[in-house]
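User: I'm new to structure prediction. If I give you an amino acid sequence, what do you actually give back? Let's try with this one:
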Amino acid sequence: MVRFLNQAADMNNLPPSHLLSLGVCPSSASIFPYPSSPIDCVEAHRVCSADPLCEALYRGLELCAAEAAVSPLGEQAAAECLERQDDLLAKHPALSTCKCQRGFRKEEQCLRIYWRVRLLPGQSAECLKAAQDCGLYEKCGSLRSEYVLACTKRVPGSNRCNQHKCHRALRRFLERVPEEYSLSVLFCPCTNTLCGERRRKTIVPSCSYQEMEGLQPNCLHQQSFCRRDDLCRSRLADFLSNCQPSLLTTSGCLKDSAGLCLRAYAGLIGTIMTPNYISNSSADVSLWCNCEGSGNQWQDCLRLQRMFTHNTCLRKYTLYTGHTLSFDDVFVCIVSDGRINT
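Assistant: Good question. You get back a string of structure tokens that encode the predicted 3D arrangement of the chain. For your 342 residues, that looks like this:
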């Protein structure tokens, strides 16, 4: 593990042309430079240990790792461990962005802490890599921690989150983090329900997606509210334009560009029309709404719903290599300009 992390650091120092000659896509750090001053993981853990709740969560993760080293965790135990991890990183975001310096006197201790809060069972290789890559890239890790905190923090004196702040933080993450990181986290493929549940919870749906009371609004009412907001109205128009399905194209999209649809779908996240996965056992997506009470606009409501639930354009994404995969198998490929090819 030490060698892996050190090699990763060395690769990030190579110019993009050298990386491409090695068959490796360049790091977005060379394309989107940001100042770097991450805290080291030993210091991050020291701060955490001063908080009894944070330290208890960390010790719980150590037990998870110890049990997993003996035998694979059952689904319930693994789910509890992932819940612990989410709670810890929301409580103390510095642990998700901390780094370890090669040659540092406490390097092994630092790396042990680094991996303890990242490596847990139940994720596919692609989802694990996406989460690790996001954590290693400071801008992605810090903005992800920012939106998790915003979406889990309760409004004083209530049991509700501040959905407005949650949506704003999600938009910041998607707008400021290069697509190779942000979309990989959102759309990594899963092969089991535990990974699927983790993927479903990526955008903290209890705040960003559904209402605290659990009651679904009418989809046309939701669309009406969206159209009163300039940003939401533009994002929805972008989605309806770029994700029109077609049975006549290989991509399943009328514009024959699944890359445009993927971006447009992601653009809705952080608005009142935020979509999400509807379960942990599939990659089906939907809005948090229904068509009850639509009256003579029932068909209009169903058409809006089906743009998410029965959309061939959403269910197929064309990779830059030309291969077409189902929505459940999608993995966002890194290309030399840090964007998804269309």
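You can read the tokens as a compact description of the fold. Here is one thing that stands out. The CA atoms of residues 77 and 131 lie 20 Å apart.
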